[in-house]
From TrEMBL:
This protein's record includes keyword Cell wall biogenesis/degradation: no
Topological relation to the membrane, as annotated: Multi-pass membrane protein
Protein name: YeeE/YedE thiosulfate transporter family protein
Taxonomic superkingdom: Bacteria
Transmembrane segments: 6-23, 116-134, 154-172, 193-213
Localization per record: Cell inner membrane
Keyword Membrane included in the entry's annotation: yes
Predominant cellular place of this UniProt entry's protein: membrane
Amino acid sequence: MTTYWPWWAGAVGLALVTIYHALATDRSFGVSSAWDRVVHWRRERRLERMDEEFADDRALAEALAAATAEHFGPGPSPVRQLPYGQPGTLQVDVEPPAGDRPAATSGRPAPLFTQAALLISVFVGGLIAAVTSGRFELRLDMGPGFRSLVTADPVMMTVLLFAGGVLVGFGTRLAGGCSSGHGLNGCGRLRPVSLLATAVFFGTAVAVSFILWKVI
């Protein structure tokens, strides 16, 4: 383990990536959600084009008002009634300034290009780290540890890896995020569901590692 970075350097690097992504995009990031959107890029691009049509809050409100008036007919003026017996004049609701209204795009995922760039950066970063450390090697198996602990049969290895990948994908979607989404972003924002999910992630990893190395 001496050839790896110290733990604190990795923690600082992950924290900087998380903070920079949040500041640059005003959104959280997760590898599993990015992968899902990139794989279904046609659907996501179509949704992005639909979002662009209603990016302006005023245009969206006017379109909804016009559609409502066309379907139900013109309605009464938006007048706010004063309490009975209170002197004064009737107050007409005034639309708040643009800066006080929530943005129409708030809460939406990061652009598809941003998430594709995230996945490419993860691959390129890992490749650079492996090459510069002198440990880059192309191989078709999981190494001697996997062969001795699990199986050396290439067919069985492929089946197990495929089944494991399916289970990881199912669990990730069921939990609403992966270790990056919950562990880095959610825990950093003290979200209870992320704290619980991360505890389950790492607790299961510790248990499986113990079974593999100490029991089997």
